[in-house]
Amino acid sequence: MFSLLRKSRTPAKPKAPLQRVHEVAGRSLPLVIKENLRATRITLRIEPGGKGLKLTIPYGLHHREVDDFLDRHHGWLKNRLEKLGPEQHLRHGGTISIRGISHRIEHTGTLRGVTQVLRTPEGEAILRVSGLPEHTGRRISTYLKKEARADLERLVAMYAKTVGRPVRSLTMKDTRSRWGSCSYEGNLSFSWRIVMAPDSVIDYLAAHEVAHLREMNHGPKFWALCKALCPHMEESKAWLKRHGSQLHALDFS
User: Fold this and answer.
1) Which end of the chain is more exposed for a tag (fewer CB within 10 A), N or C?
2) Half-sphere exposure at residue 170, Cβ-oriented, CA atoms within 13 angstroms
3) Whole-number pLDDT of residue 8
4) Those residues with Cβ within 8 angstroms of residue 176's Cβ, 6 or more apart along the chain or in another chain
């Protein structure tokens, strides 16, 4: 996020959000520009996975000031986007990470068949996908959702037994703002994209949400319980902070 302080103006009805395309680091990114009556600064955010940009501006700001702001911070944007890595294409010959291990995508050329993981005699990990080539991404996401559910159901059951709290339900979603959540009723929700992370990170996420069954906060008692369940908590948190956006950057449509 980057921002620039600016004096406020007299409140009035803001205009509808403006949408356009902004070119940066070899990418054409959708840019949404939205006026906010309370804003006293220009605020620029990169959407999870580098999918787009969102600019919040004070009411009545002239478009020249918006363009000047974007020009001044082109280098900052370029550096942030480059850290996300190049766009990956889920097609034959491409790669996908499953539990932290890079798998080469191999399209079988047949319409029928299950998506499965195998290894070559040389030890290379392969994700074999059937169906129409244009459906490869969708078939991969279906496989990842199934694998994520299997991993998390097993881990959640283990940790719930440890803390002595019941789990009412477990759902898989494709959330961008958080990796998991826990309700007061004991309903747990996870982003299935976590299955692309290393096993230790998947383990941490399960422990984190189960710990909320006893501590519905992020206070000292919660973090102490989370670390007791998952001794490698700090390393896994750091991994998600560094690489989480890369998992969100993949487009399975």
Assistant:
1) C
2) 21
3) 47
4) 47, 48, 49, 248
Tokens read off for 137: 């991404």
Question: Which tokens go with 213?
Answer: 């069954």
DSSP string of 121-170, one letter each residue: TT--EEEEE-S-GGGHHHHHHHHHHHHHHHHHHHHHHHHHHHHT----EE
In the chain, the amino acid numbered 123 is G
The model's pTM is 0.72
Strand 125-129 with 101-107, pairing: parallel
pLDDT digits (tens, 9 = 90+) for 201-228: 999 999 999 999 999 999 999 999 999 9
Contact 90, 140 (CB under 8 A): yes
Checking phi first, is residue 72 left (phi over 0); if not, alpha (psi -120 to 50) or beta?
Answer: alpha
